[in-house]
Structures are given as structure tokens and as C-alpha cells.
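Exercise 7. Given the encoded structure of a 321-residue chain, write a plausible sequence.
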């Protein structure tokens, strides 16, 4: 008999087909999903969800047999890891495979903001160009200073790309990390913001990074500075960011992630100097395929009674401590 699993948000169609072939999949996002999940609650031992969605405390509470939360992503900020640990529930992620695509999107946002892709598209699309409208000049990337906040895999992959565009790269990371020779380390996040033209956020979202990019840091970035965020909306104080963009305290921003997404703050939609994306860092066919493979491998191992290969919670080791 097939095992029941709960799918919280859609995946690539071919991955959902593979899930359907192996499991009895209850889709929480479908119209009758809540009722079907409630009816199967006792039997559901694994949940598959997205990094930006996670699993609510309510659903943790409703699933007494839960043993694995398989995140189709790398962010664990929407899953209560302490609760999972206490209940002996594995939480797996999809490390490594999305690094390049998220860094690519970071680079695309830097390029898009500095070369005014959003404004240019709107000018052409609206017909205003044909009526004599002009796009303000952009800024070249060559020689510009990129500050990377958070120098994990994604931060380092962005540094590599930025070097190819002739940018001068500096970074800040809470712990010491190995960095390529062309990247200078800043002592503090605030110093990094003050010393760069473009500040790219590549930090994990968690309690320690919440609202780290605040009014003071945006003021340090300054009226010519641009902000790019491909990590989590929670890292930025959005009130401060909106005020900074409205008042010209910073020049512009490229944003892929928001607090409360997809219901983003109306002010973002009204600003000209922002390039907005609907959380697309890992959203390519190739990467979603690779992420899906890892999700399937974690489920497979779990249902065989093995430790899911990319579990971030090592239950046996923790139990023996
Ligand atoms: C995905 C993400 O968009 O990796 C993460 O944590 O937020 C993104 O890669 C998401 O997991 C898919 O819903």
C-alpha cells in the first residue's frame, strides 16, 4: 500500500507525477486539500513543502505520525526546527543544487537595476518611448563596488559572477569563511554597506538576521547605493526600505523576496525605482528538477527507515549526545 504524504505547495509537474507514482499525495493547496489532509492526518508521515512556505505550527500539531518535513529548497526559516527536534522529526533541504541559479538572479537584479530594465520595459510597453519619452542613463557595472552580505555558497557564487563584470567585491559574514583572493572582508555589515555601491543580501533568514538591513544600514548605503535581495524578505526592515526608496535615501532596489509574500506591500508596486520578482531565485526547470530529485531521495530513504541524506537534523547523533 502506498504511504500518504502531504504536499503543501505545487512542484514541477514531472516531480509531482513521480510523487503520485510512489505515494498517496494529499495536496494541501487544492480546494478540498484542508479537508483531505485532516481526514488523512493520522496516516501522514511526511510533508513536502517549499522553503518560503514551510509548515505551520498548526499543521505540525495536526500530524501525530509526522517523521519528515522535506523542504524543496534551502531555507528552514518557516519550519520550527526546535519543535521538529523535540518530536524526533527529520527536516531535509536541497543544498547545493540551487546555488548557481540564485546567484544568477542576484546578478540579473544588479544588472537590471543599474541598467534600468524595469523602467525601460515600462517605457517601451506603454508607448511612451514612441512619443518622445526617454530613459534616464544607467550606471555601468565595471569598477562598481559590490558588497555581499552573507558569504555562504550563494554569496560566493555571486562574487564569482560579479568579478566577470568588473565589479570590485567585498563581503561580510558572521563567522570566518574562506574567500577568494579578489574578495575583501569587511569588519562589520554596516561598514560593508557604507563602502559599496550595490549591497546584495545573501544571508539565511532567521531570528539573528531579522530586519538586519534597517534604516541605519540603508542610510550608510547612501543615495547612490542600490540594494538587491535574493534571500528572505525578513532580513530587511521593509518600512525602512520603502521610506528609503520614496525619499531617495538609496537610489533603487531589486527585490525577489518579501515579508508576507505573495501579498507584498502596495508601496513596492507604486515605486518606479524598484525591480520586483515573485521569488524566482531557484525557479528554473533544471534546478527545480535537481531539487525535486533530492526531495524524492529524502522521502525514499525516510520510508525505508534510513536517515534522509540531506536532513539538517541528525536525530541519532543528537539522541546519543
Ligand atoms: C524556493 C527558497 O523558491 O530555497 C529556498 O529556501 O525559498 C526557494 O528556493 C522554494 O523553496 C520553492 O518553494
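Solution.
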Amino acid at each position: 500500500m502506498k504511504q500518504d504524504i502531504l504536499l503543501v505547495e505545487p512542484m514541477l509537474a514531472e516531480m509531482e507525477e513521480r510523487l503520485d507514482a510512489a505515494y498517496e499525495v494529499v495536496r494541501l493547496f487544492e480546494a478540498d486539500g484542508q479537508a483531505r489532509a485532516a481526514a488523512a492526518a493520522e496516516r501522514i508521515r511526511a510533508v513536502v513543502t517549499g522553503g518560503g512556505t514551510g509548515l505551520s505550527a498548526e499543521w505540525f500539531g495536526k500530524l501525530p505520525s509526522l517523521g519528515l518535513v522535506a523542504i524543496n529548497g534551502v531555507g528552514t526559516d518557516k519550519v520550527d526546527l526546535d519543535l521538529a527536534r523535540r518530536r524526533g522529526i527529520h527536516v531535509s533541504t536541497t543544498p547545493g543544487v540551487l546555488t548557481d541559479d540564485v546567484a544568477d538572479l542576484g546578478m540579473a537584479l544588479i544588472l537590471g537595476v543599474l541598467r534600468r530594465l524595469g523602467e525601460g520595459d515600462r517605457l517601451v510597453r506603454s508607448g511612451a518611448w514612441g512619443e518622445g519619452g526617454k530613459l534616464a542613463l544607467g550606471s555601468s557595472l565595471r569598477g562598481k563596488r559590490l558588497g555581499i552580505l552573507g558569504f555562504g555558497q550563494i554569496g560566493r557564487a555571486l562574487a564569482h559572477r560579479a568579478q566577470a563584470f568588473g565589479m570590485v567585491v567585498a563581503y561580510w559574514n558572521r563567522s570566518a569563511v574562506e574567500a577568494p583572493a579578489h574578495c575583501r572582508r569587511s569588519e562589520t555589515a554596516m561598514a560593508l554597506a557604507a563602502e559599496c555601491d550595490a549591497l546584495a543580501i545573501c544571508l539565511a533568514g532567521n531570528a539573528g538576521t531579522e530586519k538586519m538591513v534597517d534604516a541605519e544600514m540603508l542610510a550608510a548605503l547612501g543615495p547612490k547605493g542600490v540594494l538587491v535581495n535574493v534571500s528572505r524578505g525578513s532580513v530587511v526592515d521593509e518600512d525602512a526600505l520603502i521610506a528609503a526608496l520614496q525619499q531617495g535615501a538609496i537610489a533603487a532596489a531589486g527585490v525577489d523576496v518579501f515579508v508576507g509574500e505573495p501579498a507584498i506591500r502596495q508601496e513596492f508596486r507604486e515605486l518606479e525605482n524598484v525591480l520586483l520578482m515573485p521569488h524566482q531565485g531557484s525557479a528554473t526547470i533544471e534546478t527545480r528538477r535537481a531539487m525535486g530529485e533530492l526531495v524524492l531521495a529524502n522521502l525514499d530513504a525516510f520510508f525505508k527507515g534510513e536517515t534522509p541524506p540531506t536532513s539538517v537534523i541528525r536525530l541519532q547523533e543528537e539522541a546519543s549526545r
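Remark. The longest helix spans residues 285-303. Students should compare their own answers with the one above.
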